[in-house]
Amino acid sequence: MRVTFTPIHRRDKTTAGTIAVLQDVTEQEKLEQSRREFVANVSHELRTPLTTIKSYAEALDDGAMQEKELGERFVGVIRNETERMIRLVTDLLHLSRLDSNQAPLRRQATNVPDMLEEVADRFSFQLRQKSIHAAVQVEAGISTLWLDRDQIDQVLDNLVSNAIKYTMDGGRIEISARKPDAATIAIRVKDTGIGIPQKDLNRIFERFYRVDKARSRNMGGTGLGLSIAREIIKAHGGTIALESEWNEGTTVTFTLPALHEGGGSA
Ligand code: ADP
User: Histidine kinase domain: from which residue to which, for each copy (predicted)?
Assistant: First the structure.
């Protein structure tokens, strides 16, 4: 709360009274603080790989280049860190386009069962590598939706890649679609992974929020996947929610309005 006092003067310069203005600045301050945090996070996230790249380049310069095996390993580290930075900057640009509404939706008629089968196919290599069984289930009667296929694919890719990252070998992932009511389709990605502790649940969609920073970084994560997913679903007029039980698994459900071509309800 900001309070400003303005004295009211009579013609003879004596004070007749004071106007007090009470201004609620909590929202504004909160916004300002989250902007500051965001800039600090971005700087930190970019500085970490840059520092690594610098020190490995110096080590190469100092002689590591002469030893073939060591040299190759160091170049590999530099390449990995560079790729992570590219992913991070790409995610940041995407978020900023979503924030400023510069990513208009390009809706197209999309067959939901095919879309879900295709996301599972895209990850078949990683799934096989970790012996994770993936099942796709679509409730009868769900076929075509009017949505931005590229953007929803990105949401699905983020959710399924998280599910794989945070599930142990031999686990199970379910990708399913159902119709809770005539106007809504709910798509769910459920895993039997490590889960998320209760205390972290309400912050999980925040930009850069990660339960375990080191682990996420080792897995190649940017900490922006869920925030991007939330913005894309919001732009579609839907909602996204995450439920999780530590050591049991995680379920992310997003809803989309059941629109048909032209924008009307199906
Ligand atoms: P990241 O790039 O780190 O995966 P996300 O925004 O996609 O970033 O996710 C934020 C954090 O939420 C992750 O770092 C991880 O701690 C947690 N998380 C997301 N999905 C899952 C999941 N399926 N199981 C367990 N933890 C998850």
Answer: 41-260
